[in-house]
Amino acid sequence: MQLSLLNQLRQENPVVLNISNFVTVQDVANGLNALGASPIMSEEINETKEMVHISDAVALNLGAFSEEQVKHIRKMGQEANRAFKPVVLDPVAVGAIDYRLQVAKELLDEIDVAVIRGNAGEIAALAGADWTSKGIDAGQGQGDLVEIAQQAAQKFHTIVLLSGADDIITDGKRVTIVHNGTPLFAAHVGSGDMLSSIVAAFCAVDPAGVYEATRVAATVFARIGELAVGDQSTMGPGTFTVNLLDQLQLAQLEQIKQNIKFEEA
Ligand SMILES: Nc1ncnc2c1ncn2[C@@H]1O[C@H](COP(=O)(O)OP(=O)(O)OP(=O)(O)O)[C@@H](O)[C@H]1O
Ligand SMILES: Cc1ncsc1CCO
Ligand SMILES: [Mg+2]
Predict the structure, then answer these.
(1) Annotated binding residue at 163?
(2) What is the DSSP string of 55-113?
(3) For residues 257, 263, 264 and 265, what is the CA-based torsion angle, rounded to 10 degrees?
(4) Are 73 and 110 in contact (CB under 8 A)?
(5) Which of 71, 118, 164, 217 qualifies as a cystine partner to 202, CB 3.0-4.6 A?
(6) 18 CA to middle of ligand 2, Å?
(7) Is the pLDDT of residue 207 over 80?
(8) Among the atoms of ligand 1, which is closest to the Cα of residue 190?
(9) Pocket test for ligand 2, best of 18, 20, 24, 197 (most atoms within 8 A of CB)
(10) What mean pLDDT is reported for the chain?
(11) For residue 156, what is the enclosing H or E element?
């Protein structure tokens, strides 16, 4: 795996344009900034073209959209397609709310999305698989998550990153499973949103290799979570959040490379 993309990202400092949600906007901005990218957020549709022009990648988060924001998201995605800037979509809670699923599918029809990053419930809903989601959380189901991720990737012609205890990255055929990470990620609302924007940052560094960029992003983020926990046996989400932000900036490639656990299929 080309983990050295992290150093390239830190050198290039790509601008990542985000449609964020009001819950996690600061996590996303500070997470990108600490890692070595340059975040910018927008809530004004009239600046879309200029915003996309100055950006290297776009992350569209469906966490708390309104009808107005959907118009903005559509325009931003289409503008990014015209400018050949990679687009990442985070389909928050589409497994729990049918209306969200419908909007997400419409956007996927209208925008050429490079990567969909969601949890099991979200990706299962997009794939049309049997699964019970719970709000923004993954929920429960019986299906094989690798197959579900592959189905979603084939259906929408994208790379899919299905995150959770294991992260599954697939283009519909190739599969990488990353075992690194910590359950404390799930105790911090916004871990997933941070990851989606970080995927966009890696895609900006290597737009020709979205699959590689996505699996590197997942691995780097998971290892940084582990470094944030360190050898402490008890840690709560408060300290984890602070340490995560620190490690996003401080963690060096050599530390990240230690103890990588992934398999390819
Ligand atoms: N139990 C776990 N063990 C290890 N890593 C985990 C676990 N749960 C989540 N993660 C990691 O947390 C990060 C966010 O993924 P997650 O699937 O929790 O996103 P999400 O459900 O969209 O989160 P949110 O919407 O609350 O921000 C990923 O890097 C994932 O690998
Ligand atoms: C809690 C929550 N509600 C809508 S978005 C969000 C943050 C996770 O994306
Ligand atoms: Mg999420």
Answers:
(1) yes
(2) -SEEEEE-TT--HHHHHHHHHHHHHHHHTT--EEEE-TTTTT-HHHHHHHHHHHHHS--
(3) 180
(4) no
(5) 217
(6) 15
(7) no
(8) 27
(9) 24
(10) 97
(11) helix 145-156
Using 50, 70 and 90 to split pLDDT, how confident is the model at 183? very high
- Our answer on whether the CB atom of 135 is closer than 6 Å to any ligand 1 atom is no
The CA distance from 132 to 254, in Å, is 40
pLDDT category at 233 given cuts 50, 70, 90 is: confident
Q: Token pair for residue 171?
A: 């283009």
| Number of structural domains found in the chain | 1
DSSP class of 224? H
Tokens standing for residue 109: 């029809």
Q: Which ligand is nearest to the CA of 62?
A: 2
Q: How far apart are CA 219 and CA 32, in angstroms?
A: 15
CB 161 within 8 A of CB 190: no
Please report which confidence band the pLDDT of residue 220 belongs to, taking 50, 70 and 90 as the band edges.
Answer: very high
Q: What tens digit of pLDDT does each residue of 22-49 get? A: 999 999 999 999 999 999 999 999 999 9
Binding site membership of 139 for ligand 1 (Cβ less than 6 Å): no
Q: How many whole angstroms from 88 Cα to the centroid of ligand 3?
A: 13
Which residue range is the domain that position 129 belongs to?
5-264
Measured in angstroms, how far is the CA atom of residue 118 from the centroid of ligand 3?
6
Tell me which ligand sits closest to the C-alpha of residue 189. 1
Q: In ligand 1, which atom is closest to the CA atom of 189? A: 26
Beta strands in 91-157 (DSSP E): 115-119, 132-134, 137-140
pLDDT tens column, 114-148: 999 999 999 999 999 999 999 999 999 999 999 99
Q: What is the ipTM of this complex?
A: 0.98
Which structure tokens are listed for 52? 């996309």
Q: Is the CB of 195 under 6 A from ligand 1?
A: yes
